[in-house]
Amino acid sequence: MDMCMMAGSDTEFKATLATSTGNRKIELVLCPIMQNIAVILFAVNYFTWTSAVFDSQRQSVHKKLRYLLEPPVYAEVTARRGANVTLPCLLQKKPLVYKVKWTKLEPLRRGVENIVLITNGQAQKGYGLLGPRASLRRAHPLDASVRISNLELEDDGSYRCELINGIEDESVVLTLRVEGLVFPYQSANGRYKFNHQEAKEACYGQDAALATHKQLFRAWTEGLDWCNAGWLNDGTVHYPILHPRAQCGGEKLPAGIRSYGPKDKTRDYFDAFCFTSITAGYVFFIGGKLNFTEAIEVCREKGAELARVGQLYSAWHFRGLDRCDGGWLYDGSVRFPITSPRKRCGDLREPGVRSFGFPNKTLRLHGAYCYR
Ligand SMILES: *[C@@H]1O[C@H](CO)[C@@H](O)[C@H](O)[C@H]1NC(C)=O
Ligand SMILES: *[C@@H]1O[C@H](CO)[C@@H](O)[C@H](O)[C@H]1NC(C)=O
Ligand SMILES: *[C@@H]1O[C@H](CO)[C@@H](O)[C@H](O)[C@H]1NC(C)=O
């Protein structure tokens, strides 16, 4: 791991790698590939999309701070959807008069300041979408840490804790990473049928959100290899390749995230890369030879609904759901989750959620995956 990190000579690349705490074996195997992809990422586009976040980080790195503790206790906080998290920000010394302002950095919407919470040391006020779920921890008089309750997928990102004292303002930047997984999603009408907004809605409909570039990159390091290009939340289009092959952009290009760059959000059509995390409920299978309406009905009889694609992926990833039977899902597709690959389950070499696509809804060939 250390050697890999040294290979990326830039802080941005290290930051990306440092977020990767996954399986050590996988990281070691991927090291030589990562060195190659680093070049692509930097040369092409990684900088421009994330620069808003890192610019502010860079500034705070070079200035010796007088009031705020730096580095913050942890630079990255990781948690699953639904959890309560604390983003640490401590004063080492209190100015007479000051405010602390927490903002979520939005590299996608330049110029928009997304304030989460402001405090003057006594009173606090929450702002925006996150405001109602944000509060100060106040463990002691020097504590300006913010708590975010009931974590949502969209909370993933960078946050700035800024001390404003009227003379010289200071800030530290932290990353909040929602632990989860990325899955590719295609329309029932076929390949490349979503514009950006439709891709966003498609993910939302499957209990997921359009993935960020960081999330896709991480998914690639964890084994995602997919030959169809999909939208990311920043309006760019990519696909992750671990095994270079002729029909997926060529054998000569190194493994990595292949990029189409930013595309026209209204006029260009692709698939989607969706991101989801753990769910509050459970997915279970009901066997039988059911058509689509019967599948809806058997779930309803159990007080459940047909599972969304994101819920099935989540159950597979977080709860190890392994089932060799195809089942209907809410969107009309038929899939099955495999955690231990075996010969008679599609003869697949790697774990994953397999798809039969969107069969004719009158067919009586499959069971149902329900979510409750
Ligand atoms: C999160 O905090 C709220 C109170 O703000 C509490 O009701 C809830 O149970 C906590 N959730 C978890 C997962 O700890
Ligand atoms: C589904 O199958 C039925 C019966 O075989 C057929 O009448 C119908 O046209 C098919 N629907 C589609 C969308 O292919
Ligand atoms: C499924 O079968 C039921 C009869 O059990 C029928 O009423 C329903 O229309 C069928 N649905 C589809 C989509 O074919």
TrEMBL record:
Keywords tagged on the record: Disulfide bond, Extracellular matrix, Hyaluronic acid, Immunoglobulin domain, Membrane, Repeat, Secreted, Transmembrane, Transmembrane helix
Record-annotated membrane-spanning stretches: 33-54
Stored SUPFAM superfamilies: C-type lectin-like (SSF56436), Immunoglobulin (SSF48726)
Any one biological process term the GO annotation gives: skeletal system development
Source species, domain of life: Eukaryota
Subcellular location: Secreted, Extracellular space, Extracellular matrix
CDD domains tied to this protein: Link_domain_HAPLN_module_2
GO cellular component, one term: synapse
Residue intervals of the Ig-like domain: 71-175
GO MF annotation, one: hyaluronic acid binding
Disulfide bond positions: C227-C248, C324-C345
Coiled coil: none
Family per similarity comment: Belongs to the HAPLN family.
Protein name: Hyaluronan and proteoglycan link protein 2
Lineage: Eukaryota, Metazoa, Chordata, Craniata, Vertebrata
